[in-house]
Amino acid sequence: MLSVKNISKIYQSGFNKLTVLNNISFEVAPGETAAIVGPSGSGKTTLLGLCAGLDRYDAGSITLYDSLLSELDEDGLAQIRNQHVGFVFQNFQLLPTLTALENVMVPMELQGALNAKKKALALLDKVGLADRATHYASELSGGEQQRIALARAFSNNPKILFADEPTGNLDTETGQKVEQLLFNLNRDAGTTLVLVTHDLELANKTEHIIRLKGGVLV
Amino acid sequence: MNGWWIIKMAWRDSRKNRSRLLFFISSIVLGIAALVAIAAFGKNLKQEIDNQAASLIGADLEISSGKPLTVSAHKLIDSLINLSQSHAEEHQFASMANFIKNGGTRLVQIRALTGAYPFYGALETSPAAAAFTFLDDQKILVDKTLLLQFNAAVGDTVKLGDLNFQIAGSLINTPGKTVISGSVAPTIFMPLSLLEKTGLSQKGSRINYKYYFRFLDNYPVDKLVEHLDDQFEQLSLRTETIASTKENTGRSFTDLTDFLGLVGFIALMLGCLGVSSSIHVYVKEKLPSVAILRCIGARSHQTFLIYLAQIIGISTIGALSGVILGAIVQQVLPWILKDFLPVNVRSDISWSAIVQGILIGLSMSLLFSLIPLLSVRKVSPLYTLRIQSNDRLSISKGDALKNLVYLCIIIFITIFSRFQLNSWYQSIAFVMGISMAFVVLYGTAVLLMKALRQYTPLSWPYVWRQGLANLYRPNNQTVMLIVAIGLGTALIASLFFIQGILLNRVTLSSSKNQPNMVLFDIQSSQKDEVAALIKRSKLPVLQKTPIVTMQLTAINNYTLEDVRKDSTLGFSTRAFGGEIRATYKSTLDPSEKITDGQWIEKSMVGDTAKISLDQSYAKRLKVKVGDRLQFNVQGVVIPTIIGSLREVDWNRMQTNFRVLFPLGVIDNAPQFHVIMTRVPNDRVSADIQQLLVKRFPNISIIDLDLILSVLDSILDKIGFVIKFIGAFSILTGIVVLIAAIMISKYQRIQENVLLRTLGASRRQLFTITGCEYLLLGLLASITGIILASIASFLLAFFIFEASFKPSISVILLLLFGVSGLTLFIGLFNSRSALNQPPLVVLRKEV
Ligand SMILES: Nc1ncnc2c1ncn2[C@@H]1O[C@H](COP(=O)(O)OP(=O)(O)OP(=O)(O)O)[C@@H](O)[C@H]1O
Ligand SMILES: [Mg+2]
């Protein structure tokens, strides 16, 4: 499903070169759940971004669902994301001018799916927010926003879901609810899951833990 | 991906921003309105001129001559009379009218008429029948403004020359005359048969001889004129047909509407600049959404199209509102311009003007929006993963497409102004001027930011430093605001300055100690008597000048004939046509400066006279010092050599001459005299006029104060027209200013709330915002005023050939007005950040 081989990422700022990731390799099998853990600044977000095709790497190769990411152009990457990838972000990232329902519909609409609205309503029901369908992000609490984001992430039936500290902005209790929802949805859909977290407890619930420190695997 | 989804997304995405988007786009409404109104008006005007051309000229053919017809000219006219159905003859000249009842006198335009002129259209009189009976009744028609001025009525007596006439009717409207042209010299129609008896036909001043012809319908008049063209030219006869009237009148009014159109276009450009700056900020705010969409898998062109669709949508709404407003404004234009128009203009809706307005408005606003909008294509989805402020999502530079858009804008503006100005040279100058202004303002803004960053003293209070820092910190609007405010100010200042230049020219000539009354057509035998009479009335004789009329017959021994045959000689055939009024004297006036050659005071017997030419006249003739000119002075051929060139100040109220003879050449030629004096007030003016006209009925008197006040009112009217159209720019400028500052509100609001949460007082926040906008407004308006001063100076120097001194009051007004307005709107906007509870603002996602 996801295969990372000898990945390096270097940031150039001025004359300084900063090697953020150095020679990272791992694999995630279809249906597997994996967690990327490590201290702040260790490169977790960077790694996740690279795996999801949001950024370009400087060395190595990443294969996502049979596609070598470095061979695709921006639109090619966009298509992969739209067809096979779901995202959950630490800060939810709902489109502020769209209602909850519309936010969930967008990935399906992008695919040109026919019954987007029906599916979106069903997903909202699953995350327990069917009654908030016409609300805007600013009218929802953080936990509710993240549940909408979860519904959106699953709306295009992704093969793989990337989550960057999905509970990082939530209190423990709400965080656990969202966590539960994430794993449930994931199990139901049989999706591969890669999540970034500080939370070792959360990481231990996954089948595979990738530990980072200072840009290298430990 | 289907377009429907794009439109749906555009619609959804705009949901929370619609009022703002509409506000952005309102900047272009006024510009489009002005363009549509002027284009539609111009079209209707052209249409009316075409429709009414026949009644503008009043005949199928008009032939005019500046001197009595020669024998061969008479033959030609007679042959035309034979060809035509009917004809009329008119002698036109300036003379004094003396209203017997109350003794009022005024210089009028006398049109001595015989025949059924006009053949098309009508003299509109009250009573209406007077127009048809006055010739037979041997009465006159008097312009209604004259009757009003002298409180006269139909039936009263007016003395023209030696003869008394009864007023048959008040002249309300004459074909082809505008209110303006009538107000300078009001018209009196009299029967030509009585001209002889008035004694005015012997006048020294010029009489214009006119012959009007009516031909059978469908007679090929223009072919006939073309056929006879050589003869007309040889005989110095000018012709005018319905077709040429159509063309000439049409052309001069096309120039007018084109000019007004350009002023309207400036409003549109200013508005587009506003749109561009608004969209710039809007797009920046939208970048996170774009990143999310990209993350979900939208392609870059899809996200771009979503926002393009929004812009097209609001631009269309803006253009349509502009068109509607334009249709309303169009109803007003004929009324505003009515005094300048020879025809009544209807206010029909013009579809072509509407389509043109929509197209121009849409393409301009799209082009200007594209500059910021293109950045949407370059947003990376990576931004979703990192919490960061908008400015990190910075807009990439050096985008080739963006440069293409810039190029398109420049081409678009150049082509548009080319159509308005009808000259590539002028339109390129126009575009260069605008671009220069843009560059200067841009540079000013950049320099300001650099300077503030480096030189803001640390010792200043925190709130000042914070306010000034707002001008260069990320997300600042400094460049956009300075460019928009600066351009707006420059435009408004230029309008004021140019009006000042025009008015200045008039007031200059009416200043103290300069003559304000001119007596002309004085015969040699009368000149001493007239001067004595003036002195007896305790008035000064400021100038006494003889005038000799003559014609140029050869340049360097080439006659008109030679010049016509051989165009390589480089002289214009026109040089030979007109009548030249020359004078002779020994000493030059202080206002005349010799620029080349030498002035010789007296010509010795046997010498060829060394004359002096006005240098711009010499330029027009394409002659220089040493060239030979030959004149025909009423039958006598006089050869001369150009001895010197003079610079003449035509702005001074005095008799100025293109051709100046030394003493001893034309001293004894038939001549008439001009005397100038200064009268202290209207009462004295009326008295002396009455006295003079009674004694010397042939003398004409120009009351300069009267003329100047007429000119003043004309300029007032012109000024009003310019201001009316200019107001569209001014209002647009204000809308843009408000829009630009409104936008920055969305950016500053979070920050202000944060500061307030940290404990900043309202006063401190006010000071911070105040510092920021005051400096912005001051700098932008100062730069704008400087730009306008430079532009006005160039215009004054090259176009109006007048001096330019910027009016301090205008400068102060604009300086305080513009920076005050900027400050006010800035502070007014920050109000919501001060009055709302911080929580509301923090939750509100903009
Ligand atoms: N655009 C950039 N330019 C330079 N350095 C960058 C850039 N983006 C990230 N970095 C650096 O890369 C390193 C890894 O960043 P990354 O965001 O991946 O860390 P992280 O493990 O996700 O940390 P956290 O747990 O705090 O989110 C950090 O040191 C960061 O400063
Ligand atoms: Mg991170």
Describe the structure in your own words:
The complex is a heterodimer of chains A (about 220) and B (about 850). Chain A has one domain (about 1-215): 3-Layer(aba) Sandwich (Rossmann fold), CATH 3.40.50.300. In chain A, about 35% of the residues lie in helices and about 30% in strands. Chain A has 7 helices and 10 strands. Chain A has helices at about 45-50, 75-85, 100-110, 115-125, 140-155, 170-190, 200-205, and strands at about 1-15, 15-30, 35, 60-65, 65-70, 85-90, 160-165, 190-195, 210-215, 215. A 6-stranded mixed β-sheet of chain A has the order 6-7-8-3-9-10. In chain A, strands 2-1-4-5 form a 4-stranded antiparallel β-sheet, with helices on one face. In chain A, strand 4 and strand 5 (about 65-70) form a beta hairpin. In chain A, helix 3 packs across helix 4 (about 115-125), helix 3 packs parallel to helix 5 (about 140-155) and helix 4 packs across helix 5. Chain B folds into 4 domains: about 1-50 and about 255-420, no CATH class; about 60-220, no CATH class; about 430-510 and about 710-845, no CATH class; about 540-675, no CATH class. Helices cover about 55% and strands about 15% of the residues of chain B. The interface between A and B is large, with 37 and 35 residues. The complex binds adenosine-5'-triphosphate (ATP) and magnesium ion (MG). Adenosine-5'-triphosphate (ATP) binds near residues 38 and 46 of chain A. Magnesium ion binds next to helix 1 of chain A. Chain B: Its main location: membrane.
CATH topology of chain A: Rossmann fold
Shape of chain A: globular
Oligomer: heterodimer
What is the percent of helical residues of chain A? Answer: 25-40%
Whole-number total of structural domains of chain B: 4
Largest interface: A-B, 37 and 35 residues
Strand content of chain A: 25-35%
Structural class label of chain B: alpha+beta
How would you sum up the major sheet of chain B? 6 strands, mixed, barrel
Q: Estimate what percentage of residues of chain B fall within beta strands.
A: 15-25%
**How do the strands of the widest beta sheet of chain A line up side by side?**
6-7-8-3-9-10
Bound compounds, each kind once, are: adenosine-5'-triphosphate, magnesium ion
Query: Low-confidence stretches of chain B at least 5 residues in length (pLDDT < 50)?
Result: 389-395
Do you know the CATH architecture of chain A? 3-Layer(aba) Sandwich
Subcellular location (chain B): Cell membrane
Transmembrane segments (chain B): 21-42, 259-283, 304-329, 349-376, 404-421, 427-449, 479-502, 720-743, 773-800, 806-828
Keywords (chain B): Cell membrane, Membrane, Transmembrane, Transmembrane helix
Membrane topology (chain B): Multi-pass membrane protein
